[in-house]
Amino acid sequence: MQQDMIVILDLGSHENTMVARAVRELGVYSEIKPHDITAAELKELPNVKGIIINGGENNIIDGQPIDVEAAVYQFGVPVMSVGHTLAKVENLPAWPEHTAMLEVLKKFVFDECHATANWNMKNFINDQIELIKKQVGDKKVLLALSGGVDSSVVAALLIKAIGSQLTCVHVNHGLMRKDESESVVRVFRDELKANLVYVDASERFLSKLAGVADPEAKRKIIGAEFIRVFEEEARKLDGIEFLGQGTIYPDVVESGTKTAKSVKSHHNVGGLPEDLQFKLVEPLYQLFKDEVRACGIELGLPHSMVYRQPFPGPGLGVRCLGAITKERLEAVREADAILREEFANAGLDKKVWQYFTVVPDFKSVGVRDNARTFEYPVIIRAINTVDAMTATIEELDWPILHKITNRILAEVKNVNRVCYDLSPKPNATIEWE
Fold first, then answer.
1. Where is the GMPS ATP-PPase domain (predicted)?
2. Whole-angstrom Cα distance, residue 251 to residue 230?
3. Is the residue at 326 inside a domain?
4. Which of 155, 377, 380, 411 is the most buried (most CB within 10 A)?
């Protein structure tokens, strides 16, 4: 690995990702590690130049305050402690606002740690190509290709690293957006000439999900079934030993640490089965979302692909709330298509980071053709974010909201109400489930 590293030890702070991003903003690579990492484990990490012990309100486990291993303080690199009273090193009461925080970090990272600002996408790509070649050798990789930003960038990286040793598999799990699978096949197989296998497993997934209402259970079912499909496809090929995934850093962070409760299990992190038959290749697991996009641009991917609308791995399964039914799944799919079309017409697709519709599992009373109806609401969500760890709401003008509402009510079956979600992250997450 070419980049110098600052390690952030998680002692319960809500600001771990903010600190990690601030260090990277200075041009130095940073990574969050659990509080109980040992000095021996730290020694295995490449080019560690400094350690930040980041305390916070969650620094209690089983009623006892936590600290790092004593040997960490004598590891041989500068240590800075923030919001953590146990350490006998520089101790700040809390992180100052962003600009001042950058100054504090700049002094620590460069003046005390003597780190070099060599964190950039060119170096990252070169490192990953070397690591992928070393990990995979002459074996073959099966890549889950959804067509979204993350999997597309992984595909580009793997093609650059191992070329024909890669087979891409696109699984239509019946939870895709309108015409999404057709678009993936057209772009990757027909235009980019990728070695692409298309699998229509929609009935299989929907059958497994029938009657399942719990969001975590749905995510785990979808994650496990994805693996089963890939295992079946791998058996049709020779030499497949690895599974490529578009796991990124927010997926890892949000799936929980010892001192930070899980926000939700991501299907490609907490949802993987214990009897996984593949070794994983996850070259983007260190990157935040904006860094993934920068990586895609550096790799030469088209701007339209790199800045494509984000779409969760479980697809519409986490936007058709509760137990999935074909009726509500079709409603959320059609409403989403209308939303995306009208956002594009208004130029909002270039302004808003993510926008989608949600259909909950309850109905409300309405009126249609002078008769009482009992139908579902559609909820619109439009948010802006840099790294998917926090999000703000896009303040839409009334005319565009009226137009979208009128189209949904007129064109989408079994819907009689449209709502707009005004909740930022936190306290809400980006997705509803």
1. 119-308
2. 21
3. yes
4. 155
pTM: 0.71
Matching residue, tokens 């920068």: 294
Binding-site sequence positions? 146-152
CA distances for 130 relative to 1, 157, 158, angstroms: 9, 11, 11
**What total of structural domains would you count in the chain?**
3
Query: Are residues 334 and 355 located together in one domain of the fold?
Result: yes
- Domain assignment present for residue 159? The answer is yes
Quote the longest CA-to-CA distance of the chain.
Answer: 78
Report how far residue 60's alpha carbon sits from residue 230's, in angstroms, rounded to the nearest whole number: 41
Cα 72 to Cα 389: distance, rounded to the nearest angstrom: 28
The reply to whether 326 and 275 lie within a common domain is: no
pLDDT at 162: 93
Evaluate whether residue 126 is within a structural domain.
yes
Burial class (CB in 10 A: 0-12, 13-18, 19+), 50: buried
- Binding-site residues for ATP, in ranges, read 146-152
What average pLDDT does range 213-218 have in this prediction? 95
Q: Is 203 left (phi over 0), alpha (psi -120 to 50) or beta?
A: alpha
Q: What is the pLDDT of residue 269?
A: 46
Looking from the CA of 7 toward its CB, the CA atoms found within 13 Å total 27
Q: In 3D, which of 98, 181, 141 has the Cα closest to residue 279?
A: 141
Give 398's contacts (C-beta < 8 A, 6+ positions apart): none
- Going by pLDDT thresholds of 50, 70 and 90, the confidence category of residue 270 is very low
Judgement on whether residues 152 and 276 belong to the same structural domain of the protein: yes
Instruction: Name the E strands within 251-349.
Output: 279-281
- The 3-state DSSP class for residue 355 equals strand
Number of other CB atoms surrounding residue 300 within 10 Å: 9
Distance CA 428, CA 111 (A): 39
Instruction: Give the model's pLDDT for residue 272.
Output: 54
> 3-state DSSP helix/strand/coil percent for the chain, to nearest 5?
40, 20, 40
Residue 209 one-letter amino acid: L
- 147 shares its domain with 275: yes
